Amino acid sequence: MKADIALFNELERHLMQDERPSEYLNNLACKPEFTGYPFTMLQKQIATKQSPKHHPEGSVWNHTLLVVDEAAKVKRLSSNPRVFMWAALLHDIGKPSTTKVRDGKITSYDHDLIGMNLARNFLSAFSLDKVMVDAVCGLVRYHMQILFVVNGMRFADIKGMLEHTDVNEVALLGLCDRLGRLNYNRELEEENIRQFLIKSGVGLNDERWGFLR
């Protein structure tokens, strides 16, 4: 099945130009075009539940809409806003296939790893430039590293992250990810980003992090 490039271009225009891309995305989710490949990867998020403790906003789709709106507020700080906005939209694309209930808790282990491959499949359906696709997939792959690095978890991979993506972009996306929920504490989340940058060895030298110093 041939991917709808016109819909892709329209979606990208709203991601890049709208103050609240979620409004367009919510409308798109109700249209039959959203059931075509590869947009079905996003559609599956609507029915994918999340832990009510960590995500009181509800489904993965609800969370993604909040993250995209947060990303729209700060995309001017990104070194590549186009890559950044697509990464915000696709960052949890791996959750529908990894979400399970374990011991009464909703989990989505490895959704970052699975999501990297699904994001590549999604974007490759539109014959995009490989450099752009790789950059988006790198952010999707490493967007959970903030949690892992700050908490000293065994999943932390600072070396791989430094080799394969831009840590400052991971931090910016991660901040949007943390703020894209209904129970966030901005002061706490900004401190987590600060600690992540320091522990990753990147530091706060980039001018975008003036508010964290």
Form type: globular
Estimate what percentage of residues fall within beta strands.
Answer: under 5%
Strand adjacency order, main sheet: 1-2
- Give the class-level CATH name: Mainly Alpha
The CATH topology name reads Hypothetical protein af1432
What is the share of helical residues?
55-70%
Number of strands: 2
- Using only C-alpha atoms, the radius of gyration works out to 16 Å
What is the CA-CA span between the terminal residues?
Answer: 50 Å
Spans of at least 5 consecutive residues whose pLDDT stays below 50 are: none
What is the CATH architecture assignment?
Orthogonal Bundle
Can you summarize the main beta sheet? 2 strands, antiparallel
Elements, N to C (H/E): HHHHHHEEHHHHHH
Protein structure class: mainly alpha
H/I helix tally: 12
| Mean pLDDT across every amino acid position | 96
Whole-number tally of structural domains: 1
